[in-house]
Design goal:
The chain is of the alpha/beta class. It is built from 23 helices and 29 strands. About 1% of the residues have low confidence. The structure holds coenzyme A.
Length: 699
């Protein structure tokens, strides 16, 4: 796939300028200078030769075939050039030229025209407005970089050219090796999904990194990423936010969702590891590039000083990892080989004057222990020892115990440099700060968890589709895309949610009659298609205990609402069973422009409004997705039953989440939906949807 971009046998540089430091010239220079072994054709109608190579006025003047065109002519010449490429039968082009979508409406129109042409000609393109492509294993560099990155096993793609140049420069100083390096520019034709597919089975790529600003097709992205991440880690940094939030939102879920949560959910469900900064991207990349991922969560911290060990264990505490508990044999061994003031439990502190031999004996005991899956070796600089000797010990033992993930955190700068170089020679990543070492191992363990996660299909729940369709048609006929409360409740009831007993009463006397029938206490709620937030306008009364209270409440609700919302249409008042006991949660749906329906779960009341303690997943959801959503919120212990309170029916919540997922799969026209509150009753008693609201798309 995309073979001509990565392994072309012949390249034309179209716009190979004669003058040094013009971009087309520098690209040609890089192609030649890096030692590309195929044919190189400079294309320039004004030149006979460029950089010692015969130049051609156009690709059609070249006798042989051309696998890849690198286009570096001004924007207004690109149409003519792409037409010529088509005539020549070229099927792959990297377009460096700027002046397209990124530069305003005229550029956007130019890009649409260019895209139309490349589609018509079947020419795959990277760019425009990009920095080029590098394949170190093919000695191919079509960028205008200063210098060539070392070969390695990291593939990197980026929508930002500036990020590309910065990363390249950094890679050169840090000796980070790349397999492929791709600047995708405006992503006009080839985008992140094509690249994931191209890198999926690339034997030279062990880890895929990417910087992305937007995702064109969220569904295609998730599907591809899901497959690729099972084979190799994909670590992405996602900058910027989408325009998804532009539509006015009227639900809690809608206002909380946002593109950030959608991206996080989508990445999580497709196994993509997210880095939050460029620095983090490379912290993770280095570890994945050099070491095997841990077999399990247990990490041992091994240090010659207390402070770094404590810092690192704090980070372990907040991660997916856990501190390894050593076997008795290990502890006895450590006690024998280390001085009495050393710490023989995890973190192991060998104390400052530990020389290489003692360090070796102790570290080997830890590595041998079956309870240990990874080891972070920390070293603070000490005048008494040569740190390089310790680095050698770490390198040798890491090689001997290959199943254990070993990363280092030799602290310090200049003094440590020679030791860090020794570590690098053994392929041990070193982190100047112990926190980063833990984060790297944590990410690697997440990858382990992901690769071991069994693929699960969403369960199918049968809903009464006919009933929901009828509600939607009715709403559209009335011109109300935001459903009336009773209608929204009918929808969720059709998908298996129990509702409180509820009767619509148009008059005081019928309200009282209804209350007698339902049984006290009851709740009264104004019924109006014009009102979404009933409590805000005092349209709700709780805990009404007898006919008089109900009668008075009826009058005061109707009159009050009329006064507060002039011209409001009121259908009457809902008289409802008051559900008691249990806890209120919120279950919702919003629609993201990139990824589709997002399901939200959280505890109701202040937990959702003030603390925003909610979790999101992209529909459709599996049962384990639903469980993860529930367990992810900070207030989960309140559902599980904490401090003597009985456990609530979390299974019913998990099923409810899946039922909502089924509902939006069956009815994609749902734009927003809140079940708020959904009352979770004690274990075994289920959930009750007290209130619901929904907005649908026009038919
Ligand atoms: N086919 C091939 N070469 C042609 C040509 C044609 N039809 N028409 C003109 N050329 C030659 C020119 O003669 C010139 O060579 P010369 O200097 O030897 O005369 C060469 O192509 C370049 O054209 P020129 O007009 O000098 O443009 P330029 O080099 O100043 O700029 C770009 C061209 C593509 C670099 C510029 O338009 C651009 O887009 N710059 C920004 C690129 C960028 O930032 N990309 C994103 C990076 S992250």
């Amino acid at each position: 796939m995309l073979e001509h971009f990565f392994q072309p046998k012949s390249i034309a540089v179209i716009g190979a300028a004669r003058e040094e430091h013009k971009i087309g010239h520098d690209i040609l220079k890089n192609i030649i200078g890096y030692g590309f072994s195929g044919k190189i054709y400079p294309i320039n109608p004004k030149a006979d030769s460029v950089l010692g190579l015969k130049a051609y006025p156009s690709v059609n003047a070249v006798a042989g075939g051309i696998d890849l065109a690198v286009i570096v002519v001004p924007a207004d010449l690109t149409f003519q050039v792409i037409d010529e490429c088509a005539r020549k039968g070229i099927d792959s082009a990297v377009i460096i030229t700027a002046g397209f979508k990124e530069s305003g409406s005229e550029g956007a129109a130019r890009e649409r025209e260019l895209l139309e042409r490349v589609h018509r000609y079947n020419i795959r393109t990277i760019g425009p407005n990009c920095f080029g492509v590098i394949n170190t294993h093919h000695r191919l560099n079509t960028t205008f970089s200063h210098g060539h990155p070392p070969a390695g096993n990291i593939a990197f793609f980026s929508q930002s050219g500036a990020v590309c140049t910065a990363i390249l420069d950094w890679a050169l100083t840090e000796h980070i090796g790349f397999s492929k390096f791709i600047s995708t520019g405006n992503n006009m034709d080839i985008n992140e999904v094509d690249l994931l597919k191209a890198l999926e089975d690339d034997p030279e790529t062990r880890v895929i990194l990417g910087y992305i600003e937007g995702i064109k097709d969220g569904r295609a992205f998730m599907e591809t990423a899901f497959r690729v991440t099972k084979k190799k880690p994909v670590i992405l940094i996602k900058a910027g936010s989408s325009v998804a939030g532009a539509r006015a939102v009227s639900s809690h879920t809608g206002s909380l969702a946002g593109s950030e949560n959608a991206v996080n959910a989508a990445f999580r469900q497709s196994g993509v590891l997210r880095a939050n900064s460029l620095q983090e991207l490379f912290v993770f990349a280095e570890a994945f590039s050099l070491r095997e991922i841990p077999q399990g969560p247990s990490v041992a911290l091994f240090t010659n000083a207390g402070g770094p060990g404590i810092l690192a264990s704090d980070v372990v505490e907040r991660s997916n990892l856990k501190m390894a508990s050593f076997s008795k044999e290990t502890i006895d061994g450590l006690r024998r080989c280390l001085p009495p003031i050393a710490s023989i439990y995890n973190p192991v502190d060998t104390i400052a004057d530990t020389g290489p031999e003692r360090y070796r004996t102790a570290l080997e005991l830890v590595l041998k222990d079956d309870n240990v899956h990874s080891v972070i070796t920390m070293l603070a600089p000490i005048a008494l020892i040569d740190e390089r000797d310790i680095a050698r010990v770490v390198g040798e033992l890491a090689g001997k115990y290959k199943r254990k993930t070993v990363v280092a955190s030799f602290l310090g700068g200049l003094t440590m440099k020679p030791a860090v170089d020794v570590l690098a020679g053994y392929g041990i990543p070193n982190y100047r700060f112990p926190e980063n070492a833990v984060r790297a191992v944590d990410m690697m363990y997440r990858q382990r968890q992901w690769t071991e996660k069994v693929r699960e299909e969403p369960e199918v729940f049968k809903g009464d589709r006919g009933a929901v369709s009828a509600v939607f048609s009715r709403a559209r006929e009335r011109g109300h895309l935001t459903l009336a409360e009773g209608d929204a409740r009918e929808v969720v009831a059709a998908y298996g949610f129990r509702l409180p007993k509820s009767v619509l009463a148009a008059a005081r006397s019928s309200a009282v009659e209804a209350a007698e029938e339902i049984g006290y206490p009851v709740v009264l709620k104004v019924a109006s298609p014009d009102i979404l937030h009933k409590s805000d306008i005092r349209g709700v009364r709780l805990g009404l205990e007898g006919p008089d209270e109900v009668g008075r409440a009826f009058e005061s609700v109707v009159e009050g609402v009329r006064r507060r919302v002039p011209g409001v249409h009121i259908d009457g008042v809902f008289v409802q069973e008051m559900v008691q006991g249990g806890r209120e949660v919120i279950l919702g749906v919003s629609h993201d422009a990139q990824f589709g329906h997002l399901i939200m779960f959280g505890l109701g009341g202040i937990y959702v409004e003030m603390l925003k303690d909610v979790s999101f997943r992209v529909a459709p959801l599996t049962k384990s997705d639903a469980w993860e959503m529930v367990k992810e919120i900070r207030s989960y212990p309140l559902l599980k039953g904490a401090r003597g309170e009985g456990a609530l029916d979390v299974d019913a919540v998990v099923e409810g989440i899946q039922r909502i997922s089924q509902l939006v799969v069956d009815f994609p026209e749902i734009l927003e939906l809140d079940i708020n509150p959904l009352v979770v009753l004690p274990h075994g008693s289920g959930v009750v949807a007290i209130d619901a609201r929904a907005t649908i798309a026009p038919g």
